[in-house]
Amino acid sequence: MTLERTRTALILVDVQQVFLEWEAGGMRRNNPGAVGNIAALLAAFRREGMAVFHVRHASRKAGSAFNPENPGYAPMDEAREAGGEPVIVKHVNSAFIGTDLEAQLRARDIGTLVIAGITTNHCVETTTRMAGNLGFDARLVSDACYTFDRTGFDGRTESAETIHAMTLSNLNGEFATIETTENLLAALNASAAA
């Protein structure tokens, strides 16, 4: 795999404090190393001078933990934006709806999107599906996103691992290529050496 430095961007979806609050409140998640992998990808993209876009969910619902006035809205420390890195504020699941993300990517001639964030089966999935539909080469990083256990429509509890795996399976090939942090970091190192 090769990544064109000027045509590849890292898209970090909703890496926000609210998910730490959920976890502290007893919600169980998968991929315990995901935030560390997000931080590693972010550091590598910054080191190579490549584009980084931060996506933040701002709920318009009263009392939502994602409301910009609540502490849960803030980014996790590991994914805080640096100077010059755009922050895309969205109000629905997809980072492309009601934002200028697509316009910014097109203006910079970016064709490949490396996508990571929280949660796998909600905003990460929706953003990845739309990226593929819009013609971007979407690369979803399997170990740099996570989700939580969830009660299904039939009342059964589905594990975070099952939900995560099914989401990746649904996206793979049709909307995105599923990658790992290790493979992407290796590709970045190879691109830098070339």
From TrEMBL:
* Residues covered by the Isochorismatase-like domain: 8-182
Q: Does the keyword Hydrolase apply?
A: yes
Q: Which UniProt keywords apply?
A: Hydrolase
One MF annotation (Gene Ontology) recorded for this entry: hydrolase activity
One matching Pfam family, short form? Isochorismatase
Enumerate the PANTHER family for this protein. Answer: ISOCHORISMATASE HYDROLASE (PTHR43540:SF1), PEROXYUREIDOACRYLATE/UREIDOACRYLATE AMIDOHYDROLASE-RELATED (PTHR43540)
Q: What is this protein called?
A: Cysteine hydrolase
Tell me the organism's taxonomic lineage. Bacteria, Pseudomonadati, Pseudomonadota, Alphaproteobacteria, Hyphomicrobiales
